[in-house]
Specification:
The structure holds two protein chains of two kinds.
Chain A lengths: L17 H5 L3 H16 L5 H15 L2 H5 E3 H5 L4 H4 L14 H14 L7 H10 L2 H23 L10 E3 L10
Parallel strand pairs in A: 1-2
Chain B lengths: L7 H5 L4 H16 L3 H14 L13 H16 L5 H34 L2 H6 L1
Helix pairs in contact in B: 3-4, 3-5, 4-5
The chains are: A mainly alpha, B mainly alpha.
C-alpha cells in the first residue's frame, strides 16, 4: 500500500490529500461534499452509529487516514476511544458496544467483506434494532465509507504517520441549499 | 437483487428523496467525467468479480482500456495490492482528473455491488 500520492494536488500550494486531489474534478467534489454533509447532518440514524460503522470500515479496508479521524458529533454522543478500541474482531463480546451497534457492525462486515455474514439471526437483529429508514441511511453510509476508503488508498493518499484527529462533522453548506 | 447495472443504494434510498437525489447527482457527476463506454466496462468487470454477470468482452478494445479493466478488477478484493506502476499507467492513460474520476467510479461500483449482495433495498423496505 503506497503512502506516496499517485495524483498531485489540484489546489495550488496544498499537499495532496483527499480534498485537494478531488479538486481535479470540481463537479464531483461539490456533489460529494453536498451528499456527505446531508448524510452526516441527518439525524435519522445517530452520528455515533454512523461512526461505529465508519470505524469498522476503516479497520477492515486498512484505511489509516479514516482510522485516525474522529467526527466531533459522534464523540459528543459518547463514542470514546474505549468504545472505538472494541470495534475490532471479537466485537460481539464487547461490554461497551450496545446490541444495536453490534448489529450494525455485523451488517457493515457483511457489506464490506462477506454478504454471508448477514444470516437469518444477523438480519433479524438488524431489523429489530433499526427502522427501514435507518437501515437505508446506514447502507448509504457504509457504501460511501467503503468506496472513499478504497479510492483514497488506491490514489496513494494514505499518510505515513497521522495522529488521532477530531474533525468537525461534515455538514451541509447553507449556500448549497 | 438489483441488476449490476443499476444501483442498490439508489433503490434503498427511495424513502428519502432528498438524500436519493444527492446520491444520484454524485454518481452521475463521477460517471459523467469519464467515457460512458469505459464506465460501462468498469461496472461490468467489477460486477463479474462479484459473480453478478459475465465479464466484458475485451475483443477489439485498445491496450489502455484493457489495462483499465484489469485495474478495476482488482478493486473488490485487492485494492491494497495495486502498485504504484499500475496506478501510474492509469494516470498516463486517463490523465490526473480522469484517474480521480476513475478511482471514484471503480470504488463506487464495487461498493454498490456489495450493497446489492446484502439486498440493501430489501432490508430498507422492511
Amino acid at each position: 500500500m503506497s503512502t506516496t500520492p499517485r495524483v498531485s494536488s489540484g489546489i495550488a500550494g496544498e499537499p495532496a490529500h483527499f480534498g485537494s486531489v478531488l479538486a481535479h474534478q470540481p463537479a464531483i467534489a461539490e456533489s460529494f461534499f453536498a451528499l456527505y454533509g446531508r448524510f452526516w447532518g441527518s439525524d435519522v440514524l445517530a452520528a455515533r452509529i454512523k461512526e461505529v460503522a465508519r470505524m469498522r470500515n476503516a479497520r477492515v479496508t486498512e484505511c489509516g487516514f479514516c482510522r485516525n479521524v474522529r467526527f466531533d458529533k459522534a464523540v459528543a454522543q459518547g463514542l470514546g476511544e474505549e468504545v472505538v478500541d472494541d470495534i475490532t474482531d471479537g466485537y460481539e463480546t464487547s461490554p461497551r458496544l450496545t446490541d444495536t451497534e453490534k448489529a450494525v457492525l455485523k451488517f457493515t462486515d457483511a457489506l464490506i467483506h462477506d454478504p454471508e455474514l448477514l444470516n437469518g439471526d444477523a438480519k433479524a437483529a438488524l431489523q429489530r434494532h433499526l427502522s427501514p429508514a435507518q437501515i437505508s441511511e446506514l447502507g448509504l453510509g457504509v457504501t460511501l465509507f467503503l468506496a472513499l476508503a478504497k479510492a483514497l488508498i488506491t490514489m496513494g493518499l494514505e499518510p505515513e504517520v497521522m495522529d488521532r484527529t477530531v474533525l468537525p462533522t461534515p455538514a451541509v453548506l447553507e449556500a448549497a441549499e | 437483487m438489483t441488476p449490476a447495472g443499476g444501483s442498490a443504494v439508489q433503490a434503498a434510498l427511495a424513502g428519502d428523496p432528498v438524500l436519493a437525489a444527492h446520491y444520484a447527482d454524485f454518481r452521475a457527476k463521477a460517471e459523467g467525467a469519464l467515457d460512458p463506454a469505459l464506465v460501462a466496462l468498469v461496472r461490468q468487470a467489477v460486477a463479474a468479480v462479484h459473480g453478478m454477470g459475465a465479464a466484458p468482452n475485451e475483443a477489439g478494445l485498445d491496450e489502455g482500456t484493457r489495462a483499465a479493466i484489469a485495474y478495476a478488477r482488482r478493486m473488490p478484493f485487492e485494492h491494497t495490492a495495486i502498485s504504484d506502476a499500475e496506478a501510474a499507467a492509469m494516470v498516463a492513460h486517463l490523465g490526473e482528473p480522469g484517474f480521480v474520476a476513475f478511482s471514484v467510479v471503480t470504488a463506487l461500483a464495487d461498493a454498490e455491488c456489495r450493497a446489492a449482495l446484502v439486498d440493501l433495498p430489501g432490508l430498507a423496505a422492511g
